[in-house]
């Protein structure tokens, strides 16, 4: 996992609002708007308080009934996408 | 626009989610601008009241929050307020005159992810700006703030209301903004004051000046083409809350629909008859506009129509004048 043993939280540049089942996230620096749906929206909710990647994987496995390997891969690629969009921050714990 | 974004946009529009709101934090101001629509007073929201409004707006679905005054930096706890609102999730834009922004504040603002700070600049020359704002030295302070914010990476947008007093130097205001490396908005419409008084209208450009402005700035202007049956978002996905907690469809429409300290905002937003009427109203119902060949050059604004001519659902005479002049300029090009 790319962010193993790191603390992941929402970026200081991010603004967000839930619109029904989706989460609209704005990067105030780039002014880009991103829509997070389904599990993506759920991961954003989990990130209300900074978490480790394994904590997120555990919640997703439990709530969506998926195997660890698949949850790890999905969470990993999703977090990389959010990091690239600069709407999450990653810190060494 | 991808499908999911279209879906979200449709949801916001069809369910009248107040995604954008203006929050007037205070009516105190340290300047005395001759053209200001705001009636100065000591009305001001306290931090606990702002926290309560924040909760109500988040619950109602608001994302984009515009903070205005009065002068918001007159509030001693303004930095704590915006820190709180950013942590709550709002995208923040702040309207200010910039004169009270210190280097210490700039440093802290840089960490908060503020989307934009709009700063009023009413002249390219210090004496013009200071005369309009009624306070000597205001220009210098505002320009210093803009430079510091720019240096710190905070997006700044210069806001200028064009009037007789500064018309001669409006091109220099544009140059000033370009030299400072910031964006700008030049608005040629002075609105009546919040209490309906019209003394400020004497500042307005005359027809010759308006024509010169539109002619010179034609290529830069973004004329919003009015779609059939559409009107602005006031009362639909956009609204306003005053410094005493009163709810309005727009800061420019002084028709109160409730108060957030007496009733939950979402209930006001869902139930107010005035808002329901605005939502069902279509621009094609404005009889004077239906067959008007200038409608493509016009931005229909119910607020201006109400303040100017007393009819929210009618044309605004100043909008008609602007549209006619823009149309003339367009035809001459």
Give your account of this protein's structure.
Chain A has 93 residues and is of the alpha+beta class. Chain A contains 3 helices and 6 strands, in the order E-E-E-E-H-E-H-H-E. In chain A, strand 2 and strand 3 form a beta hairpin. In chain A, helix 1 (38-46) packs across helix 2 and helix 2 crosses helix 3. The mean pLDDT of chain A is 94. With 333 residues, chain B is α/β, with parallel strands linked by helices. Chain B has 13 helices and 9 strands. In chain B, helix 4 runs parallel beside helix 6 (138-152) and helix 8 (207-216) crosses helix 13 (317-332). The model of chain B has no long low-confidence stretch (mean pLDDT 92). At the A-B interface, strand 2 and strand 3 of A face helix 1 of B.
Q: What is the top-level CATH class of chain A?
A: Mainly Alpha
Secondary-structure element series of chain A: EEEEHEHHE
The assigned structural class of chain B equals alpha/beta
Q: Identify the strand order in the major beta sheet of chain A.
A: 5-1-6
| Count of DSSP strands of chain B | 9
- For the record, the CATH architecture of chain A stands as Orthogonal Bundle
> What amount of the residues of chain A lies in strands?
25-35%
Arithmetic mean of pLDDT of chain B: 92
Round the Cα radius of gyration of chain A to an integer and report it.
13 Å
Which pair of chains has the greatest number of interface residues, and how are they split between the two chains? A-B, 19 and 23 residues
The helix content of chain A is: 40-55%
Point out poorly predicted stretches of chain A. Answer: none
Q: How many separate helices of chain B?
A: 13
Percentage of residues in DSSP E strands of chain B = 5-15%
């Amino acid at each position: 996992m790319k962010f193993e043993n790191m603390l992941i939280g929402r970026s200081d540049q991010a603004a967000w609002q839930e619109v029904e089942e989706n989460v609209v996230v704005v990067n105030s620096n780039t002014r880009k708007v991103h829509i997070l749906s389904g599990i993506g929206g759920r991961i954003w909710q989990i990130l209300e308080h900074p978490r480790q990647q394994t904590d997120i994987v555990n919640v997703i496995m439990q709530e969506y009934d998926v195997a660890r390997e698949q949850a790890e891969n999905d969470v990993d690629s999703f977090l990389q996408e959010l990091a690239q969009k600069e709407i999450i921050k990653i810190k060494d714990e | 626009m991808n499908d999911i974004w279209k879906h979200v946009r449709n949801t916001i529009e069809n369910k009248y989610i107040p995604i954008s709101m203006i929050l007037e934090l205070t009516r105190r101001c340290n300047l005395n601008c001759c053209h200001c629509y705001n009636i100065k007073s000591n009305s001001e929201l306290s931090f606990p009241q702002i926290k309560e409004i924040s909760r109500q707006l988040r619950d109602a679905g608001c994302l984009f929050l515009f903070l205005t005054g009065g002068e918001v930096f007159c509030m001693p706890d303004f930095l704590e307020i915006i820190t709180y609102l950013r942590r709550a999730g709002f995208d923040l834009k702040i309207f200010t005159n910039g004169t009270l922004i210190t280097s210490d504040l700039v440093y802290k603002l840089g960490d908060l992810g503020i989307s934009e700070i709009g700063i009023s600049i009413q002249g390219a020359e210090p004496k013009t700006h200071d005369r309009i704002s009624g306070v000597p030295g205001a220009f210098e302070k505002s320009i210093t703030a803009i430079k510091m914010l720019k240096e710190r990476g905070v997006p700044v947008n210069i806001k200028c209301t064009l009037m007789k007093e500064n018309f001669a130097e409006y091109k220099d205001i544009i140059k000033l903004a370009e030299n400072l490396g910031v964006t700008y908005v030049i608005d040629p419409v002075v609105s009546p004051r919040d209490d309906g008084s019209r003394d400020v209208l004497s500042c307005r450009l005359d027809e010759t000046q308006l024509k010169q402005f539109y002619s010179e700035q034609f290529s830069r202007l973004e004329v919003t083409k009015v779609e059939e049956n559409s009107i602005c978002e006031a009362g639909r996905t956009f609204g306003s809350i005053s410094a005493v907690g009163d709810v309005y469809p727009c800061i420019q429409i002084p028709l109160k629909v409730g108060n957030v300290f007496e009733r939950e905002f979402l209930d006001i937003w869902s139930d107010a008859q005035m808002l329901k009427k605005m939502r069902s109203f279509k621009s094609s119902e404005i009889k004077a506009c239906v067959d008007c060949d200038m409608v493509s050059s016009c931005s229909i604004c119910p607020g201006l129509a109400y303040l100017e001519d007393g009819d929210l659902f009618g044309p605004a005479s100043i909008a008609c004048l602007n549209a006619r002049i823009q149309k003339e300029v367009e035809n001459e090009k």
